[in-house]
Amino acid sequence: xxxxxxxxxxxxxxxxxxxxxxxxxxxxxxxxxxxxxxxxxxxxxxxxxxxxxxxxxxxxxxxxxxxxxxxxxxxxxxxxxxxxxxxxxxxxxxxxxxxxxxxxxxxxxxxxxxxxxxxxxxxxxxxxxxxxxxxxxxxxxxxxxxxxxxxxxxxxxxxxxxxxxxxxxxxxxxxxxxxxxxxxxxxxxxxxxxxxxxxxxxxxxxxxxxxxxxxxxxxxxxxxxxxxxxxxxxxxxxxxxxxxxxxxxxxxxxxxxxxxxxxxxxxxxxxxxxxxxxxxxxxxxxxxxxxxxxxxxxxxxxxxxxxxxxxxxxxxxxxxxxxxxxxxxxxxxxxxxxxxxxxxxxxxxxxxxxxxxxxxxxxxxxxxxxxxxxxxxxxxxxxxxxxxxxxxxxxxxxxxxxxxxxxxxxxxxxxxxxxxxxxxxxxxxxxxxxxxxxxxxxxxxxxxxxxxxxxxxxxxxxxxxxxxxxxxxxxxxxxxxxxxxxxxxxxxxxxxxxxxxxxxxxxxxxxxxx
Length: 514
Known about the structure:
With 514 residues, this protein is α/β, with parallel strands linked by helices. It is 21% helix and 27% strand. The longest helix has 17 residues, at 393-409. The relative contact order is 0.14.
């Protein structure tokens, strides 16, 4: 059915600057709040220089807080939920969106009970359909008959997540099939200054602060929608951009205004990490939720396309940050940067809900946990709401089973109250009596960077130390699974290779109950 255009929807022409403009804000480098967040490299740097610089890179406070979350959730929801597509076309009838049983409290309870600390909603996917009451498009919940056009999934989502103690993240796709159809996306427009927010007909806002930022016609469209999301829905903790282009002719490319988008996010959501196509968090390089065996948080990067942080090596390179990788990336790298990995994967085969799909098994999810959280990364697990607007019962049950399984895999830390002695790069633990151990958890104090390149875990028998296992990097979290339980009273972790002085802050010993 045809949908009437709302009176305050902005067309491409309406994106011109309106109102009294404030002084233009220069787009800062993403690291402006912390000079140690990234360090420039030079073609003249030796390997020794590169390793020294890598050892000096430090995370920002927002990155440290993000890494401690360990398990975060994705919620892919939109018109694709009702059309059965994974990538929409932009010309969907908004009235197809009819989640008549929407219950975001049910989402929040399920995620909390599943052990998640933050959830990210697809506020706008590649089709351009938005889940909030936007002034800048008619491809939105406001144009659906659902809740008489007054529905706002983002508001309900944000309120529910906070009510149940979860942090709030938003996915705003840079691609926009609908705006392409309306001649805004990839229309070849030049970058000009725009006042954000751009007030439109019927707009009753009196912004306390506005911004003059450069952008294309579409870049300004994105800035205005970001302004809505970041000012009207409470504090946002993660902003998730991917780098997708629309399904458009190859000669039609929208060069994204990353510098302006980053500037607006930093100003309006200063504690939020900007993920994937952003300076704070990188995509691990696959959609299976699997980190590398040795996953570095300090990696070589390029700066491209108006300030976008990009890989200096291939996004799926087997080695992203070792000494050899630093040298290999040197010809194209601009910086060594703290850019930790986020491992995204869906609980089902698809990202959006499909009735014929079932959730992954507990065994699969547990394996993913150990190969993401256990490898210095954060797990981002997608659980797609169904056409009723609920998380499917099978998925809810699986989330609870997954948390229970992880709790059994890593029950009481046997070393928590044990006597321990520490020295640089070494911790020795006396359990008081012989105990069986088959899970070992380690962490560095990442406030001092990521330094460990190799380490060994040993036990003492008859006065001599015997190796139990060895591995490479540690970072914020490293979990080792022993093939069989090892029984001993005295345990030791010893760093055998590092870039600089190390400080270990966790040496946990567990006996799984699986």
